[in-house]
Each structure stands twice: as structure tokens, then as C-alpha cells.
Amino acid sequence: MKVGFIGIGMMGKAMVTNLIKAGYEMVVYDVNREAVDFAVEAGAEAADSPKGVVEACRIVCTSLPGPTEIESVVLRDNGILAGAKPGDIYIDFSTNSPSLIRRIAALAKEKGVNVLDAPLAGGGANVAWEKGHTALVGGDKAILDKVAGIIGAVSKNISYCGPVGSGMLVKLINNYAGFVCFDLFFEAMSLAAKEGLDLNVVWERFANNILGPLFKKWLPTRLFVGNFEPLFTIDLMYKDVKLALEEGKELNVPMCHGALSLEKLVQARARGIGQKDLTAVALLSEELLNIQIRL
Fold this sequence. Notes:
- It is a single chain.
- With 295 residues, this protein is an alpha/beta fold.
- The protein has 2 domains: 2-162, Rossmann fold (3-Layer(aba) Sandwich), CATH 3.40.50; 170-289, N-(1-d-carboxylethyl)-l-norvaline Dehydrogenase, domain 2 (Orthogonal Bundle), CATH 1.10.1040.
- 53% of the residues lie in helices and 13% in strands.
- It is built from 15 helices and 9 strands.
- The strands form 2 sheets. Strands 3-2-1-4-5-6 form a 6-stranded parallel β-sheet, with helices on both faces.
- The longest helix has 29 residues, at 166-194.
- 45% of the residues are buried.
């Protein structure tokens, strides 16, 4: 079976590789020629546009940075919907805007095309190589059943979340809550460092009494050793928290802590560290207070 894939970035490279390993013939596109070359060397066929991808395949997937890129790839003149045929299936693995994916699904339905949102949750790009994520899927359950093999080739679990857009919402809420917790933790550890406390003792209290696996796996390999190579970038977390806050505004849900945390992300991006790991947000407090949060 031929499967199309658009967006061969940090996540996309791993996903395309795993789909090829699973036996799928891949047709790919990316604006970055080096990314396309990577996929071709792994065994994929290159197309010259998103429309070219969907014309060659009945199922096409995207893994892109955010709503701007999704809207361009799907809705422009040489985009996915321009070349889609009745019965085609579009799977968006991106962490996208729920309102945008719903709008795309409505337009796709007019052409007889089915849409699933299936963002991957459970870690950064390194986890994608191991197929360690959970796919959070929104859309028609019967369509999900048809493409479960494809989604299963890039994830360890599939969680059906409800109608189209539901997967995006679950992912955004998860990322929103996770970063706000991180931000509160950075403030607490900054106070402990400023007081001159043994941070190993403070961390042990947090790890054993408050924090979950995400903190225990992420912080010791990044912030605590001063390694800010990205598992998940500040720029991407800014996009996710911003989208979650926009959903809250639409529903009149107060999200005060998240608004403050978003400002931290804005500061970090202004500082020029948007492409560093999200834990690099703690550098703002470290520089302000002349401390280091290291174990």
C-alpha cells in the first residue's frame, strides 16, 4: 500500500522510517530538500508538491509545526484537498488547532474525503524512533479502524478520543498542563537554589511526593545537567500553550496560570532560545537570580 507523508522534520523522519520498516511504500514531500533526500535514501519516493503526494496515494499523512503550515499544505491551490479524491483519507499527526482541523474536515467531507487528527503524545522526537508515543485520535471510528495499521506503525498505543478535533484537544490540554507544572517547578527550584539548599534533597522531595514520570525522565537528562538539546522545543511549546489558551477564550474558561506561563515562553523566545529544549525556560530565572538548577 502506498502512503503519503508531508513534513519530514524531527518527528517526521522517525515516522517515515518506521512506516517503511513496516512495509509501506512511501511518497513524501517537504519544503526542505535535505529532508526529502533523507526519506528517499530510506526507500521513499519523492513528490513535487502536497497535491502530487495525494494524487499518488489514497492515504496521506502530515507532521508539521503548526496551523500556518497545515493550512498552507492542505488548503492551497497545490495542496492536499486540491488533489484529493472521494474515499481518500487524510491523517494529521501534527499538534494543530482543533478549530482548523474541524474546518479542514468539513471542507474535505464535501469532496468525500475523511479526516483524522492523530497527534502523538508521550515525549519528544527521540521517542518517535522507538514508536513509544500514544496516538490521540479524533474522527470517525470506522475510518480509524481502516488505518489502524498505519497509525500503529508509528505509535505503541492508539487512544480514540471522539469526533474530529478531539485528539488535538487532548494533546493541547496535556501539553498545557505539563508546561504550567514545569514552570511552577522552575520557580520553586529557583527559590531553593537562591536559599542555598541542597537541590538533590529538594528534588527528592518533589520526585517522591509530587511529580510524575515525565518530570523524572525529562529533567535529569536536560535541566539538571545543563543539556538543552531539544526533546521538545520552546517554540513548539509556545505554539501549544497559545492554542490551548485560545480554546479557553472561545469557551470562556479562565486560564490565569497558563497566561503567565505563556509570557515565560514569550520571554524565552525573545531571549533567542526558542529552538532549545523547553526546560531552557528555567535559564530566565537562573540568569535573573545568578543561580543554577543543577544536581
